[in-house]
Every structure is written in structure tokens, then in C-alpha cells.
Design brief:
Layout: E1 4-7, E2 21-24, E3 29-33, E4 46-54, E5 57-58, E6 61-70, E7 77-80, E8 95-99, E9 103-108, E10 130-136, E11 143-150, H1 153-159, H2 177-192, E12 200-203, H3 209-213, E13 217-222, E14 227-229, E15 243-246, E16 251-254, E17 267-271, E18 276-279, E19 293-296, E20 300-304, E21 307-308, E22 311-312, E23 316-320, E24 325-328, E25 342-345, E26 350-353, E27 356-357, E28 360-361, E29 365-369, E30 374-377, E31 391-394, E32 398-402, E33 405-406, E34 409-410, E35 414-419, E36 425-430, E37 444-447, E38 452-455, E39 458-459, E40 462-463, E41 467-471, E42 476-479, E43 493-496, E44 501-504, E45 507-508, E46 511-512, E47 516-520, E48 525-528, E49 542-545, E50 549-553, E51 556-557, E52 560-561, E53 566-567, E54 582-586, E55 608-613, E56 621-626, E57 634-639, E58 644-649, E59 657-663, E60 670-675, E61 685-690
């Protein structure tokens, strides 16, 4: 039998076992009700909304529902959506309802729906009425959802429409009731001219001045939906200083640093609707790098620049997620090598600005046309001073650059590059410094469609928790309110949802943060995000807004990628960053030289082995290699049962070995930890920090 859960909802709201976290958008909603007299008789309909999950995944598609109104014990049935010929208390025929990402809605008694019986008001002659629901996902048959949900005042309010005229006389009313009702009627009549009748609103603001001024009164709140872990299966390996782009349907992650001194040339695609990862082809991909830029054109992801073991780069490539093809970007006329630059998509070309290389900060602009695979410099005079780490946003007809770090330190200035109607850069316009944020780098900027909002960052080592919004039309800044703003931080993530700017994570004076807040420019107020199921604290993560969810991937805590298998100490006793759980796995005594037969000698300690082979398995791998045999290493895959410190050693082996911890795909493994004689001659040992279900 499937495991199904349902939750009655009005609106939904946003460490990794492995990285991605999904969040719902309306984190806390306050329902505001405005009562208005109805001109027509109230229909015998009750709206029911809910959320369906099969297992841990929200159901999506056409679901089959059966509905009944019963008493508290279920021994009496007051109403069914369809006839019950066999008398088992369950309707014979179901309703077919569309469920989108777990959410559905239906009006009980709506006879326009196939198999929906009319709702009799006589049902509410009973004091306690409960809604009973059966659900079928189309493959596992019908299952009754428990517990039954009690129907509150709605049905009884509908029943009140049948009270005979004149049945309630003034004598039956409390003292001054007529006076109060008359005053209330006058007020409602006045409000009714401004607002449609029968309006109910959901607001994230519990003290909305706009709603209160129009006569609304709060009557209930909805608890926020917390964070949801994305699937770890096939996920991109842990990393930071990587890139991520949102295509409108998928999150593409590429490149970055998977561990100290390491660079990645791989990536993966996350599909939030399916909660699935898929791999990215490495055929024709750019070389491994970090600190590069990546933009989405509407068809391709363009990766360019960055830093690698070979130094600063001026190469790149275009990736088409549909065909899985990589095409290199031309180097003819390309900008000089750099990282820390900014990039935006203008609608037809990629604009590259600034950055740094071994010679220092850069102050040049280049346009790249992917259709022609052609670079061209921007030669309009009057641009901003050279810098790296600045923010740049695209307004639709101009690029606005602000902040960053120049040769003399952090900057509090910017400029606006205006484009003509044919998409050609035409002139530089100054950005006012009146009321502008102070000088900073490692800050964020989002574009709301009308204003650029700058927030956070650091200045000469001081963390900042302020910001301002910039109107490019009037060339003016407006400071953001300090009340309820997040703690000062740098290297955080920021996205624009269409209504709010969401700030998440980053590095604060108390360490790496998992907290976040949302700022609404319309109300001028901050609100905290839900902390339920919070992502692991991190800085330098990438984030994207899907239209309904916030996706967060990667980042770092200290120098280590979030959720990675990383060496934390020389031995268990000295592990300063140990998690509460402590795991220990020891490879038993092996009396002969290394060979594939070693896999039979491994016992099941804490966690689960899948056996051994002469080639690495998909995902993370543990390699045992003899220094006295030429037969090569033996590979073992192991899954952690819980979070904590895992110790692997070869105590008892009578020949010299090297023990290696590696991550990645079999074709591109990256070494995470390695040891020969840490535990003494012939004895190898590695100690790593793992999370539940981490496979190594």
C-alpha cells in the first residue's frame, strides 16, 4: 500500500544529505476576511483544498477521489459524492481531479463535476460533521486518508441561508446588537464601494496597513511549509565557486571547487518538477575551472573565463541542455584571461565586464554574439573604474554596475551603460552616490523590473547588513529599512521572486549561516524565512527562483564544500569538527596480496557495502591498493547509515597498502583523502566527515 498524506492548505510557502534544497514560496500567510452582504442566495457548496504526497513526493497528475461526510466515529454517513450500492460506506464512483505538485481543490456539491452529488443542507442539522477522503494515484488502488477532517463553520453558515424571513426578532438579539449591526452595515456599505464583495485575502504581513485601512480583519494564520531536500541520486558532487543557471524548467550546475586545490570540469541538471538529477555530457566541455561566469540565453548556457591550475582563463563553451552538445566559444577577439568578472544576457548577446588577473583589476567590456560566435569590444568612453567582484544587472535597455573591489580597495560607485533600440551600446550614464550604499564587495544585487536592490557584503573586513534600492530612471537611491533585516553577512545568496528579494546563508560574525529573510519593496518590510528543515549553513551557494520555489545548491563551510567527504583530522580523538554521531569502519585482516578476491573479505560494519570490483563504482569509491602487487586497486562502495565521523583503516593487513577516498564518476574521479602509513607501518587510515546516505 502506498503512503499518502494530505494537508489542508490555503497557500504554500521556501544540509543537504546531498546539496539541493527546495523551498516553498509563501513562508507564512495571514488570511484576511472582509464580510460583505450577499445579494444572491448562498449556494450549497463547500470548497475543500488539500495537498497529496505519495511516499515523500508530491503527487502530480490526474488523481481519483471519493468523498463522504460522516459523524465522528464514521458509523453514520450523511453524504457521499456518489451512490453506495453495496452499502460499504464508500462511494461507488470517484471524482477525477487535477493535482499540480500535490495541490488540489474541489467544491463539495458542485454537480457540474462528473460523479458529484448535490450537497443537502440537512447534513448540518448534525453538530459534528467530518470529511472522509479516499485517494487513488492510478496504480495502487484506493486508500482512505486518515484522520477524517472536521467541517467547521462553513457548512453551518450555508445552512443559515434557509432560516425563514422574520424568524429572528429584535427581542432575540443581545442589548445594543441592533446599534452595532447598523454601524457595521454602514461601514460595510462604505467599504463595498471600494472592494469586491466576499473577498478573502492571504498576506505574508500580519499587520498590513493597506488591508487594515480597508476594513480587513485577520482571522487565522497558516504555518509555513519548511525546506524540502532534493533527491541525492545522481546529484552534482559537492562544490563551491561554481556556476548555476535556471532555464525556466531546470537548474544547470557546472564547474567549481570540489575540495582544497581541486577544480571540476563536470556538472549536472536538476529537474525540480520531477525531483531528479541528470548528467551533463563531458564531450567538448570546457576545462575544469572555478570563478567563471555562466548565463542562460533561452537556449544555451554559456560558460566563460575563470581560474584553473593553469592560471586565469579566456576560454569557454556553449551547452545546449536539449541536445547535450558543447560548442567552444571563439578565442578570436575574446577578452584577456580573468576571473571575478560579471556577465549578463542582453537578449541577443552576452556582456562581460571587469574581473581580475595576475595584473590586477580589469575595467573593460566585451560583447559575445553566440549566433555568430563572435566577440566585440565595447568602445564607448566613460565607463566605471577597473574592479572585480562587482554586481551587474540588466534592466532591459541598460547594464547597471555597482560596487566591487578596485586596486585601492572596496568601491561605492557605479555606472550605467545604455543601449540603443538596435542593441548597440550608446553611452555611459553616471550612478548617483546620494543615499547609495557604502563601499563594499561580496554583496548581492537583484533587479525587480523597476529597481536594483543592493544588500550586504563586506568593507575592509567589516560585515554589512544594510542596502538600498536604485531607480535608474530617476537616478536615485532609497535606503532599505533596518528593522527586522538579516544579520550582516557576505557571500550570501539573493534572488527576486517577483514580489520579494530573498537573502539566504552567507558568512556572518557568528560563522556560516543557514538563516534567511525576505524583503518586500511594496510594504518596505522584512520577514524571516522558515527555519523548518533549514539547509546546512554555507556561503557562496548558488540559488534560483523557479516561480514557486527557491532552489539552493552547493557552497562552502570554511574551505570545504557543503556535504562533502572531507578530511577533518588526523584521527578520531583529534577531530575538532566532529558531528555528534561517530562511525568507525575497519577493514579486516587480509592475508594475501591485493586481488579482486579481496571483496569477499570485507565484512558489513556500520553502513552498507555493495561488494568490490577492479573498477570504481558509480558515485564515491573507496580504493585499497597494494604496494606489493601490480594487480591494481580494489574498489568498494559504502553508504553511511547516519551523519558523523567515519574512520577507514587497514589494521591487521600484512602487506603495505595505500587507502584512498575518491569522489565523482568513474571516468573523472577526484581524490578527497589518501594515506599510506598514518596508523603505523603497513596500516593506512583516513578519517572523513559524512552525512547520512553518503556513498563513498
Amino acid at each position: 500500500m502506498s503512503h499518502i498524506k494530505t494537508v489542508c492548505v490555503i497557500a504554500k510557502s521556501p544540509n543537504p544529505a546531498i546539496h539541493v534544497r527546495r523551498s516553498l514560496t509563501v513562508l507564512a500567510s495571514l488570511i484576511w476576511l472582509l464580510g460583505v452582504t450577499a445579494d444572491a442566495q448562498v449556494p450549497a457548496l463547500i470548497n475543500y483544498q488539500g495537498r497529496i504526497a505519495v511516499g515523500r513526493d508530491d503527487f502530480d497528475g490526474q488523481g481519483q477521489f471519493k468523498l463522504a461526510l460522516v459523524n465522528a466515529s464514521g458509523s453514520e454517513v450523511y453524504w457521499l459524492n456518489h451512490a453506495d450500492a453495496n452499502g460499504d460506506g464508500e462511494p461507488d464512483q470517484p471524482l477525477s481531479l487535477t493535482v499540480s505538485r500535490g495541490l488540489f481543490s474541489v467544491q463539495l456539491g458542485d454537480t457540474s463535476l462528473p460523479n458529484m452529488a448535490p450537497l443537502s443542507l440537512a447534513v448540518f442539522n448534525n453538530n459534528a460533521v467530518y470529511l472522509r477522503v479516499w485517494f487513488n494515484d492510478g496504480s495502487k488502488g484506493f486508500e482512505r486518508l486518515v484522520p477524517d477532517q472536521r467541517v467547521a463553520s462553513v457548512g453551518y453558515a450555508i445552512m443559515a441561508a434557509g432560516v425563514p424571513d422574520g424568524a429572528i426578532t429584535p427581542e432575540k438579539l443581545a442589548p445594543r446588537a441592533l446599534e452595532v449591526l447598523t454601524a457595521l452595515s454602514n461601514r460595510l456599505n462604505a467599504i463595498e464601494t471600494l472592494i469586491p464583495s466576499g473577498l478573502t485575502l492571504a498576506s505574508p504581513d500580519a499587520a498590513s496597513d493597506a488591508l487594515i485601512s480597508k476594513g480587513f480583519q485577520p482571522f487565522t494564520t497558516i504555518a509555513p511549509f519548511g525546506w524540502v531536500s532534493g533527491s541525492p541520486t545522481g546529484a552534482a558532487s559537492p562544490r563551491h565557486t561554481h556556476s548555476a543557471v535556471w532555464t525556466g524548467q531546470e537548474l544547470i550546475v557546472w564547474g567549481g571547487i570540489p575540495g582544497p586545490g581541486l577544480f571540476s570540469g563536470s556538472g549536472a541538471v536538476y529537474h525540480p518538477g520531477l525531483n531528479q538529477w541528470s548528467s551533463i555530457s563531458s564531450d567538448g566541455a570546457p576545462s575544469a575551472r572555478a570563478g567563471h561566469s555562466a548565463i542562460w540565453t533561452g537556449q544555451d548556457m554559456i560558460v566563460w573565463g575563470g581560474f584553473s591550475p593553469d592560471g586565469y582563463l579566456r576560454t569557454g563553451a556553449r551547452f545546449n541542455s536539449s541536445s547535450q552538445d558543447w560548442l567552444p566559444t571563439s578565442v578570436t577577439g575574446a577578452p584577456i584571461s580573468r576571473d571575478g568578472h560579471s556577465a549578463v544576457w542582453t537578449g541577443s548577446r552576452m556582456l562581460i565586464w571587469g574581473g581580475r588577473n595576475a595584473d590586477g583589476p580589469l575595467g573593460d567590456f566585451f560583447l559575445y554574439d553566440p549566433a555568430a560566435d563572435q566577440w566585440s569590444p565595447v568602445s564607448v568612453a566613460g565607463g566605471p573604474s577597473a574592479r572585480f567582484g562587482s554586481t551587474m544587472i540588466w534592466t532591459g535597455n541598460s547594464a547597471v554596475i555597482w560596487g566591487g573591489e578596485g586596486s585601492g580597495g572596496v568601491l561605492g560607485s557605479g555606472a550605467r551603460l545604455l543601449f540603443s533600440s538596435n542593441g548597440t551600446p550608446s553611452e555611459w550614464l553616471s550612478v548617483s552616490t546620494a543615499n547609495a550604499p557604502s563601499s563594499r564587495s561580496e554583496h548581492t544585487a537583484v533587479w525587480t523590473g523597476q529597481r536594483m536592490i543592493v544588500w550586504g557584503g563586506q568593507s575592509s573586513g567589516e560585515l554589512l547588513g544594510d542596502g538600498a534600492s536604485y531607480d535608474p530612471v530617476s537616478n536615485t537611491w532609497e535606503p532599505l529599512p533596518a528593522l527586522d533585516a538579516p544579520a550582516p553577512r557576505r557571500a550570501h545568496s539573493a534572488v527576486w521572486t517577483g514580489q520579494e528579494m530573498i537573502i539566504l546563508g552567507g558568512e556572518t560574525s557568528f560563522g556560516f549561516a543557514a538563516s534567511g529573510s525576505a524583503f518586500n519593496p511594496a510594504s518596505g518590510k522584512w520577514r524571516p524565512l522558515s527555519t523548518t528543515g533549514n539547509p546546512q549553513p554555507r556561503a557562496g551557494a548558488t540559488a534560483a527562483w523557479t516561480g514557486t520555489e527557491l532552489l539552493v545548491f552547493g557552497g562552502r563551510t570554511g574551505s570545504q564544500p557543503v556535504g562533502s567527504c572531507s578530511v577533518v583530522a588526523d584521527n578520531l580523538a583529534g577531530a575538532a569538527t566532529s558531528d555528534p554521531a561517530s562511525l568507525a569502519l575497519v577493514l579486516p585482516r587480509i592475508p594475501s596480496a591485493n586481488s579482486p578476491a579481496l571483496s569477499q573479505m570485507i565484512t558489513l560494519g556500520d553502513g552498507t557495502f555493495d561488494g568490490g570490483s577492479t573498477t570504481p563504482s558509480e558515485g564515491r569509491a573507496l580504493a585499497l591498493e597494494s604496494l606489493t602487487s601490480a594487480s591494481g586497486p580494489s574498489w568498494f562502495a559504502w553508504k553511511a547509515p547516519s551523519s558523523g565521523i567515519a574512520a577507514f583503516n587497514t589494521n591487521g593487513i600484512d602487506f603495505d597498502t595505500v587507502l584512498s577516498m575518491q569522489t565523482g564518476n568513474p571516468s573523472s574521479l577526484v581524490e578527497m583523502a589518501k594515506d599510506d602509513d598514518r596508523g603505523g607501518f603497513l596500516t593506512s587510515e583516513v578519517t572523513v566527515n559524512v552525512t547520512q546516505t553518503t556513498a563513498v
